[in-house]
């Protein structure tokens, strides 16, 4: 895969270093394998869901953490009785994993549930009141009637 040089961006733009870091991180992530598979979907105007296929993992073996706009999902398999089992074919991947998702500003995790081998993480964009659009009333002088003084 070809590496991308972001140095021209750093020379000509101020304050976009986070964007360049995100692009570099995305390039590194796409190079790493695609396990476990996942879906990202929109479930509403400001609502999202991340579903990760984690068949064979229990809730105790999974960890969902958000820190500084980075959602990290890890799976750590506990030791099991594999030494006592005689596999003819072993196609189920029960290996540890770590999957990271960069979250936009004001996107928060609202819930996570494990059902039928899918870990579903619900997210929502919650804009602070100061950033929401608001209507400004236009005042008129009380003494004016159709442009004439009373």
UniProtKB/TrEMBL annotation:
InterPro entries: A-crystallin/Hsp20_dom (IPR002068), ACD_IbpA/B (IPR037913), HSP20-like_chaperone (IPR008978)
Domain SHSP residue range list: 29-141
Short name of any one Pfam family annotated for the protein: HSP20
Keyword Repressor belongs to the record: no
Domain of life where this protein originates: Bacteria
Stored CDD domains: ACD_IbpA-B_like
Keywords assigned by UniProt, alphabetized: Stress response
Family statement drawn from the similarity comment of this UniProt entry: Belongs to the small heat shock protein (HSP20) family.
PANTHER family: PTHR47062, SMALL HEAT SHOCK PROTEIN IBPA (PTHR47062:SF1)
UniProt name for this protein: Hsp20 family protein
Organism: Brevundimonas balnearis
């Amino acid at each position: 895969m070809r590496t991308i040089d972001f140095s021209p961006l750093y020379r000509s733009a101020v304050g976009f270093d986070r964007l360049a870091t995100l692009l570099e991180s995305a390039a590194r992530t796409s190079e790493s394998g695609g396990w476990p598979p996942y879906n990202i979907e929109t479930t509403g105007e400001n609502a999202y869901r991340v579903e990760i296929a984690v068949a064979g993992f229990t809730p105790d073996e999974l960890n969902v953490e958000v820190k500084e706009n980075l959602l990290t999902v890890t799976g750590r398999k506990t030791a099991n009785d594999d030494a006592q089992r005689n596999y003819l074919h072993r196609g189920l991947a029960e290996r540890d994993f770590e999957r990271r998702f960069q979250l936009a500003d004001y996107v928060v995790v609202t819930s996570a549930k494990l059902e039928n081998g899918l870990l579903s993480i619900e997210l929502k964009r919650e804009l602070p009141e100061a950033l929401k659009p608001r209507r400004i009333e236009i005042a008129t002088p009380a003494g004016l009637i159709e442009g004439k003084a009373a």
